[in-house]
Amino acid sequence: MLQDIQKTLWATADKLRANVDAAEYKHLVLGLIFLKFVSDTFAARRAELERKFADENDDYFLADANAETLNEELEDRDYYREVNVFWVPEAGRWEALRNNAKQADIGKRIDDALDIIEKENPKLKGILDKRYARAPLPDGKLGELVDLISTIGFGEDQSKARDILGQVYEYFLGQFASAEGKKGGQFYTPASIVKTLVAVLAPHQGKVYDPCCGSGGMFVQSEKFIEAHGGKLGDVSIYGQESNPTTWRLAAMNLAIRGIDFNLGREPGDTFTRNQHPDLRADYILANPPFNISDWWHGSLEGDPRWVYGTPPQGNANYAWLQHMLYHLKPGGHAGIVLANGSMSSSQNSEGDIRRAMVDDDVVEVMVALPGQLFFNTQIPACLWFLAKNKTTRKGEVLFIDARKLGKNVSRVQIELEDEDINRIHDTVAAWRTGGSYQDIPGFCRSVPLTEIAEHGHVLTPGRYVGAEEVEDNDEAFAEKMQKLTEQLGEQMAKGAELDQLIRQKLGGLGYEF
């Protein structure tokens, strides 16, 4: 039912964007969904208070209250804040916007509504993106979008608003990531990958950290896991960081819609040079950092205390991310990180030395090779690193899982891990950790002692250990590789022609003729 509603909403919203780029349009749509949520939860609390004030058996009962005093009570902010509901001034309430959706100044009205809500709720400071007055939509389309989002909420049962709006928001994030293609991957990790990380780490309580949190999917899935296993909202503390200001806002809205308390730092910022949580030691870290970024280094990072296992190469941040996360783990903590396959075997520019030091120190717990085509933004094959600080079980061993043959096609260009795939990975790791019913399965999983890993040059590619057919340790899809090689050949031929011409000139100067 909800899935059908989501698809209908998306199809209509997508039609309304006309020729507007998806990257720009997503902030307009998701901002309105958030505004609708804030208003809906406020309206639901207000209706609840009206019932309580009139109920003689309720602690909130107001005896002899007239219309004026009743209205004054309903406008008391403390009644809303005590149940973590954002206070919404009258001009910011959804009904006021919906009633003026056809007005030419609806964009300014929305910006004004966001502005007063932000001023009334310090927790939202800097989070709400006020861009509607200059929205690049054709005349009337913004009003139509307001009308469309007015349909979310589904009747009088406002108690479901948080869950429904949260799921709609998450669905739209995924759809926008798909529509944006490569750019979409900067803020969104496909849900099946997030579910796999969460299933293996099983974060029940404590501090959860994501140093490159995108739109907050790791946190949302962690909360879902906790609730599904009998825990409650608030059993974990959420810490995140994100460098892109607009994505940082998306994450904050995504978490606020679900009533999740969070700390995303004072501001957006680069995790390496403007670490927002320098003293944090987390119980769990989940992250999907950008693959193979080459422009991350800054001179101030020389000698940084995070580089316990060696200074990462300036041309690739993969081992900077791994060490950053290990640094922020508390003793007994666990981390799950998505990285490009090359991270498992690269020996360029000190990466091999750092990996060897990490393996020898027994902080690598589980390595999982993933199927290709899981991401919106890249065809680079990826893997999951699971790290443990001060292992309590399976000391001196690493579990390798080759999951490349799992998953199903959800489109011509994308694969998704199904629940049964995720459960298989989870069950394998859980059995291995406890030493119970675990068994090596040729071609899928194998527990390997550190001495054997050392014999293989500390390479951590699962296919090398589980008995599967080996593949080339290469990040690049064939088409990308071919294009790069062709470009290099072209450059070298051009340089060859230049050198040939130069040699002819020099020899000509010496009297030789051609």
Short description:
This protein has 514 residues and is an alpha/beta fold. The protein has 17 helices and 11 strands.
- Output the helix-strand order: HHHHHHHHHEHEHEEHEHEEEEEHEHHH
CATH superfamily of the largest domain: Vaccinia Virus protein VP39
Which CATH class of the largest domain applies here? Alpha Beta
Instruction: Give me the secondary-structure category.
Output: alpha/beta
Mean pLDDT level: 85
Rg, rounded, reads 27 Å
Polypeptide structure, described:
There is one protein chain. With 514 residues, this protein is of the alpha/beta class. 44% of the residues lie in helices and 11% in strands. It contains 17 helices and eleven strands. It has helices at residues 2-16, 22-54, 67-74, 78-81, 94-99, 106-120, 141-149, 161-180, 191-201, 217-228, 245-257, 318-327, 351-360, 419-434, 450-455, 463-466, 478-509, and strands at 206-210, 236-240, 262-263, 282-287, 329-340, 364-369, 382-388, 397-402, 408-409, 415-416, 445-449. The strands form two sheets. Strands 3-2-1-4-5-7-6-8-11 form a nine-stranded mixed sheet. Strands 9-10 form a two-stranded antiparallel sheet. The longest helix has 33 residues, at 22-54.
